Amino acid sequence: MGTRREHQEELWIPSCTLARPASHPFYERLNQLLAKHDFDRFVEEKCQRFYAATMGRPGLAPGIYFRLLLIGYFEGIDSERGIAWRAGDSLSIREFVGIPLNEGAPDHTTISRTRRLIDLETHRQVFAWVLGMLADAGLVKGKRMGIDATTLEANAALRSIVRRDNGESYEEFLKGLAQQSGIATPTREDLARVDRKRKKKGSNQEWVNPHDPDARITKMKDGSTHLAHKAEHAVDMDTGAVVAVTLQEADLGDTTTVKETLAEAGTAVAELIEREADTRPAEKPQVHLGGVEEVVADKGYHSGPVLKEMQALGVRTYIPEKKQAGKRHWVGKEEEREVVNANRQRLQRPKGKRLLRKRGELIERTFAHCYDTGGMRRTHLRKHNNILKRLLVHVAGMNLGLLLRSVYGIGTPRGLQGLSYSLDFLVAVVALAVSSENSQIPESGVTEDHLVAPKYHLLLCPHFRRSEIQKQTSNPDCYARTNRTSPISMETIRISISGLRSGPRA
Description:
Layout: H1 25-36, H2 39-47, H3 62-74, H4 80-89, H5 91-97, H6 108-117, H7 120-136, E1 144-153, E2 162-163, H8 170-180, H9 188-197, E3 207-208, E4 216-219, E5 225-236, E6 242-249, H10 254-279, E7 294-296, H11 304-312, E8 316-318, H12 334-348, H13 350-372, H14 384-408, H15 415-436, E9 451-452, H16 467-471, H17 476-482, E10 488-489, H18 490-502
Parallel strand pairs: 1-7, 7-8
Antiparallel strand pairs: 1-5, 2-3, 4-5, 5-6, 9-10
Helix pairs in contact: 3-4, 3-14, 4-5, 4-6, 7-10, 7-14, 8-9, 11-12, 15-18
């Protein structure tokens, strides 16, 4: 048995003797995909004007910077400090980003300085570049768009808000109200009692956070109240790719924000059509040449004027109506009535019902990937200009995961963990099939009810070891215990194999 001993490092270590990290298979494939499409050359050309030729300290290469932001999505890291720490801690991520072993990982201040240096339009171009890769693979159709929004908690506290008119803090404002009511020296209990009796005390027209003026007082989905931002996605209803993402004030209604998001989606689809015409004029187009023709959304987006504007743009809507307290009055609104009735009729058809079911599946999935497992539910940056830079690359990472899932069956590094268990199960099934053909084992084979004896389902055995698959043996004690359990049906095995073929979802 070896013991841990203190030792002194050599002064000179040849690079050929350094331990090579085991490259993560997912990041290796992702790097191959980016290198195939000349990602580094593209971003270096777009960012060249932001770097000085002779003056200043050595900057962070654009390819390294954008890969670090992609790490934030694939590893579920919300802050730039966490990204810098992860890049310095993992050898496989260092290899993916392109950091040599004899150099330190970029500090979080370097990442944030590079983000401030590169403008928002360049981040939009990187998002559009990834969208072009998806279009080449047939993962962007552009005909049907699903639109929905979610809230992101801001990096600002409610206790820091001040009045817009005179800059007075919330506590000073309450003290003034208490003194007006006759309390000369109010305590905290007095201030809480005065605040409890007030109505509309969290108005965004009266209060603002001085550290993040773009944040708005918002009621979150869990019922709590925070300063937040509103992120809105336009998702291709045929493939699940995010075609456009916008960041707006959280107090704006859905009927107001949908106009900007739909315009961004239409512009993105038009650029993809033009790109296909320039690069592949003789091939069959992958993107719908008519652009966006249908929009699917939830009832929060239903409004007569909105439906009328979309019809004027040549867009058919599939938006459910809100429940009305009484009858609607259509005096002077005959055009809106026709549009609302047409939208209502489309929803009653099988296609409309199918699109509404698909909307909940595809759009909510993008929110779960980007903000829940992706770690961006709470922002660590302030002001929309900075947050949107990070958000564009974050959503671009989700689109890259969709492309990798279509090619390799895996869309995130964590997806390989589930794949390993599926492969183990497949090996066990193969071992079962080999054993069932052995006539020397009378207990082997499939039973009359098409059930498989649990003796050969080795992964369910608590004393199972991987080496036992090759030997096709199992612990006798395990057989004694598992033989009393319910058998495993062949239907379960077929479902597992079909799930393995299609690739586990990230």
